[in-house]
Amino acid sequence: MPTMMTRFYSASRLTVLLVVLIASTGCVGAISQLIYVVKGTDVEPAYSGLEDSTVAVVCVSDASAYGPDMLTTTVAQAVAMKMHRTGRDINVIPATTINDWIDRNGWDESDFVKLGKGVGAEKVVAIEIGAYSIHEGSTLYKGRTDLSVTVYDLQKGGSIDFMYGPTEYSFPKNGRPAIQTSDRQFEAFFLANLTENIAQQFCPYDRVDQVARDAMSLDHL
User: Fold this and answer.
1) Nearest-5° angle of CA 199, CA 208, CA 172?
2) Are residues 32 and 139 in the same domain?
3) How does pLDDT run across 156-181, given as a tens digit for each residue?
4) Residue 31: which region, alpha, beta or left (left: phi > 0; alpha: psi -120 to 50)?
5) Residue 117 shares a structural domain with residue 15
6) 25 and 124 share one domain
């Protein structure tokens, strides 16, 4: 008659074999179901300190120092929208309020604490983007950027409360042939994944959705 320890090892081996088999067949849906059964799907963010706070989200890049920049505007607004919809009581300051303050005060894009105080924020999420590109040679699309995200807590004198990066973010891993899409379509796709990656540092997310995105990054779209 098998002992409890024997049954434990048999079950463990079966779990490992299931994972290997599913992964080798490339079945993302099956992997997602296995993760759901074993761990559930809700993943808590790396930093939950934005809850019950008034937050300013601002994004800067090398290009934005020379005038209005659609890249930084898009990233900041997309991340702010995801925070607003998270249901975690994050009071996000409207982009119009932040932009009006910047226009009136000639902000130099370096003093995030000053900006936060100016718009009445308790915390500032500062997103810094550098070396941004969406092309990998002349025949392949691949988004790539240097990324750093910092949270400044104005209730603690403007001290840094959280940092993500600096890191290089790229997506998808193997790129996408240029013949399959256009600059505009690919950039929209890349920015959607970039902003999701940033928002996940502050907002809970679904593990199944992340598995699907990871699988997509391993192959051509």
Assistant:
1) 65
2) no
3) 999 999 999 999 999 988 888 888 78
4) alpha
5) no
6) no
